[in-house]
Design goal:
globular; six-stranded antiparallel sheet; alpha+beta; 162 residues
Length: 162
């Protein structure tokens, strides 16, 4: 695993706390590294809360690890070569972005309680505020955003109603 961390304010420390770029990136090549990707997400969110003072709910901690696990697993399973994982805090959410070298876009299957397996993207789409798939010059990028804090009323913040 290769990892790069960015936590800096624009304009050499003159930016307000909400303007800081808080991000981490890593490349993963083996299926054993899926656990490392989850650990990276957990450590990143622990830092977001402890070092940067942003609220991270218990639900968000678990959901981000789940999303990272599903997206990195799919990239390792269906695409040759490494995958790249980027985590960044923006607008009260953590954006999880996974790039892989396969140009084949994922098939999001309709819910089917009788189907064994292949529910990962279905679950990711249900727990995320946003979910996008985009083609890249080489491969594709899947991006999902998970709200960091729960609603003050106690409701879990996930996909926004349309």
């Amino acid at each position: 695993m290769r990892q790069d961390v960015a936590s800096h304010a624009r304009d050499e420390g003159q930016a307000a706390p909400g303007d800081r770029r808080i991000a981490v990136s890593a490349a993963f090549e083996g299926s054993a590294e899926i656990a490392e990707a989850r650990g990276m997400a957990r450590d990143f969110l622990t830092s977001v809360q402890g070092v940067h003072g942003l609220p991270v709910s218990v639900r968000a901690m678990g959901m981000v690890q789940l999303v990272v696990s599903e997206l990195v697993t799919n990239a390792r399973k269906y695409a040759p070569g490494p995958c790249l994982l980027d985590l960044e805090v923006t607008g009260g959410a953590v954006t999880v972005s996974v790039w892989d070298s396969s140009p084949t876009l994922p098939a999001v299957l309709p819910p089917d309680p009788d189907r064994v397996g292949q529910h990962g993207l279905e679950i990711v789409m249900a727990v995320c505020r946003t979910f996008t798939v985009s083609r890249e010059p080489v491969g594709k990028r899947i991006t999902a955003a998970v709200q960091l804090a729960d609603d003050p009323g106690g409701d879990a913040a996930g996909r926004q109603p349309a």
